[in-house]
Amino acid sequence: MSTLGTTDLVRLGLLAWVAQAAERGWHVIPLRPGDKRPAGHAEKYCPRTGRCADGHKTPEQRATTDTELLIAAWAQAPYNVGIATGPSGLLVVDLDTLKLQEPKGTPDGVANFSALCERAGQAVPATYRVRTARGGEHLYFTQPDGVRLHSTAGRLAKKVDTRGWGGYVVAAGSATTDGPYTVLDDRDPAPLPTWLHDALKPPARPDYAMPDSLKSRSGYAAAALRGEVRNVATAADGTRNATLLRAARALGRLVASGDLTRGEAEEALSGAAAGNATQPQRYYDDVIRRGLDWSITHNPTGKRVPA
After folding, report:
1. What is the dihedral of CA 176, 44, 22, 167, to 10 degrees?
2. Complete DSSP assignment for 80-129
3. Which of 137, 159, 215, 269 could pair covalently with 109 via S-S, beta carbons 3.0-4.6 A apart?
């Protein structure tokens, strides 16, 4: 009679947490065993084959509730469990602990969030809550209908981050060398309180003024250019660099096909990035250059490929 080894038992225990998350409608991704980083390859090592044949798939794009796919993944290794917050309709408030070098007595994320609630005249919300490996907390909320709140760092308060679109959290049942992730409150996530939603709304972005020479152009390439410029000009915090790179790669295909000139693509994307900047302009110009170079190199025949 065969017996299960330690690794098998750990994998089965993690798979039970995977199943619970999927049943709640949360989109799951595998994280490296004993780690917080997503399993799989980084974009710069992407082979552009298999699931990435049409372009590199980010962890958020790979996240799923399909139990067959999840069982097949965890059959390979005792992966930690990650939840892609955006596709799951979640906004998770991440209350961080102090770092070793920080002065003793400095308020941590839990204390700062409690103070934030007190200033707002609100009680600390009762919702699904997880203790992190280092002693912090994750508070799960559902995002309002029709809203796409992205991840933020320190916008609410010091040591208080959020995970939404473009982010993920390590789920309960996982463990790292710092310790396990455990459920403190297993109730369903509460709707994001209005006062928190208001505090997390991104500031209004100024409309990017498209050059007149591009406004007057018609056809597929011009429409694609205007769409990508709009995406870059309105990208939220935490998504700006990835949005710019995707836009450059999409327009690079049109440069390769001869539908746009490289100068047109560079001018439009650079202007859009400048109007929504948190980094020096040379940083964004480098992202644009790399994105265009990649598409032109991978599509040298000029064959039009869907973005």
Report:
1. 80
2. EEEEETTTTTEEEEEE----TTSPTT---HHHHHHHHHHHTT-PPPP--E
3. 159
DSSP code string of 4-35: --HHHHHHHHHHHHHHHHHHTTPEEEEE-TTS
How many residues does this entry show for the chain? Answer: 307
How far is 150 from 140, CA to CA, in rounded Å? 14
Alpha-carbon span 192 to 90, nearest angstrom:
9
Q: Which residues pair with 150 in a beta bridge?
A: 165
Give me the residue label for tokens 């049942």. Answer: 173
In the chain, where the domains are located: 6-200, 212-298
The residues with which 130 forms a beta bridge, in sequence order, are 138, 183
**DSSP code of 142?**
E
Instruction: Burial-class residue 150 by CB neighbours within 10 Å (0-12, 13-18, 19+).
Output: buried
What end-to-end distance do the CA atoms of the chain give, in Å? 54
Tokens of 211: 């050059």
Q: State both tokens at 52.
A: 């990435």
For residue 218, report the phi and psi dihedrals to the nearest 5 degrees.
-125, 170
Q: Which two tokens stand for residue 4?
A: 């299960």
Instruction: Give CA–CA dist 125/190, Å, rounded.
Output: 8
Beta strands in 88-173 (DSSP E): 90-95, 129-131, 137-142, 152-157, 160-163, 168-170
The pLDDT tens digits for 229-287 are: 888 888 776 678 889 999 999 999 999 888 888 988 898 898 888 876 666 788 888 89
Residue type present at position 35: D
| Tokens standing for residue 296 | 């032109």
Q: Which amino acid, residue 163? A: R
Task: Please choose, from the candidates 149, 153, 168, 93, the residue with its C-alpha nearest in 3D space to the C-alpha of residue 126.
Answer: 93
Q: What is the pTM of this model?
A: 0.70
